[in-house]
Design brief:
Layout lengths: L1 H19 L2 E4 L14 E10 L10 H4 L3 E8 L5 E9 L2 E8 L2 E10 L8 H5 L4 E3 L3 E5 L4 E12 L2 E7 L2 H11 L7 E3 L3 E2 L1
Parallel strand pairs: 1-4, 2-9, 9-11
Antiparallel strand pairs: 2-5, 3-4, 3-6, 6-7, 6-8, 8-12, 9-10
Length: about 190
Amino acid sequence: MKRLSKICFVVILALGCGGCAIANKLQTIPTGFSVEGKEESVVIGRMVFDPGTVFGMKPIGFFDRLDKMELMVGNETTGKIFIIVCDQSGSDSNFYVALSPGRYRLAKWQKGSGGWEMQSQGDREKGVFTSPPIGRFEVGKSQVIYIGMLKFIRRGFLETWQVENKYEDAVNSFRGRYPQINQEIMKSLMQLE
C-alpha cells in the first residue's frame, strides 16, 4: 500500500511540475542587448492595474509593490506560451522583452504571487488578481516594437480592459535605458476583441 501511495505521489508531482514548464518567463532584456543579427524583436509596452478604492481607500503602497504584473501570451504560429514579466513591482510598470516573430494572443494577466492555475474570485481573498484580456498583437523580425499600454480597471465587480497609446513616453523611457539600440521603434498596438 505504501508503495502505491509513493507511485501516486510521484505521478501527481510529475504532472503538476510538467504544467510549470509549458510557459517561458520573459524577464527584462539586459542593458547591453542588441537585435542586430537576431530573429527575435524587442517588444516594449506598459501594464497598469487600477483597482479603484476599497472602502474609499487606495491600496497601501507597500503591499502594491510586493509583486510584479505578468501577461501570458501565446504565439499562434508556433503554439509556444510566454509570460511577459514587468520590469518593476507594483501596479504600473514598463516591460522590455525579446519575442520571436509571429502573431500573439493575449491569454491571461496576473498581479500577485500565485500559480497560473488560480482563477478570479477566490484568489482575490488571497491577494492574487487574475483576468483574461482578449486580444492580439503582431511581432515582426529583428525590430523594436511598441505594443501599447494595457490597462486593467476594476470598479467593484466591474472589470474592463483598455489599450492606450503612450508611444512618446515609451520611446523616451526605452531610449534612456537602452541608448545602444537606435532602431526606429515600430508601433503595433494590441487589439482587444
